[in-house]
Amino acid sequence: MPDRKEHLKKGIIFGGPIILLLMFFSRNPAMIFLTVSIGIGLLVLGSILPDLIEPATGPFHRSTFHSLLVLFILSAVGIISIFAVFSFGANIITVGLCAICIGYLIHLILDSRTKMGLPDT
Ligand SMILES: [Zn+2]
Question: How far is the CA of 23 from the centre of ligand 1 (A)?
Answer without folding.
Answer: 29
